[in-house]
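Worked problem 6 (solution included).
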Amino acid sequence: MDDSMVRRQLVDLLRKGQAHVTLDQAVADLDPTVRGRRPASGTHSVYEELEHIRLAQEDILRYTLDAAWVSPKWPQGYWPRRSEPSEEEWSSCLAGVRADLDGVCALVQDAQRDLTAEIPHGEGRTYLRQVLLVADHNAYHLGQIVQTRKWLGAWPGA
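Solution. The predicted structure is:
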């Protein structure tokens, strides 16, 4: 398998969902009144899951590209402070997830970057590891969004 095919398949994994829902599918036709609702104690709202994706994805991308990046405190820095978003917070969150996903895809598509090389400041981590971490983490939490929507009766066919 040549390098360009691997890169295409990685971008497809990040964007097309493959065996899981995409970002757009997970949030499609979501009633704004449901975005911040928690289906049960101890669960997260759709917004909380989405903002967690944004925060984690941003951290992974910035850490990968910038030795000076400082990661948020774990775990509180990776979750929003409130579950109910304003329209502006929701839109900003979605735009941030999409923008940083574009950044991860650009990293993958940079033919000059050896994806199997260790990140110079990355404690033995490779670029490929970081890309797969984003794909895995996003897939997991997009699945959580689907489950939350099902519990709230806000998933098609739920």
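Discussion: The two ends are 41 Å apart (CA to CA).
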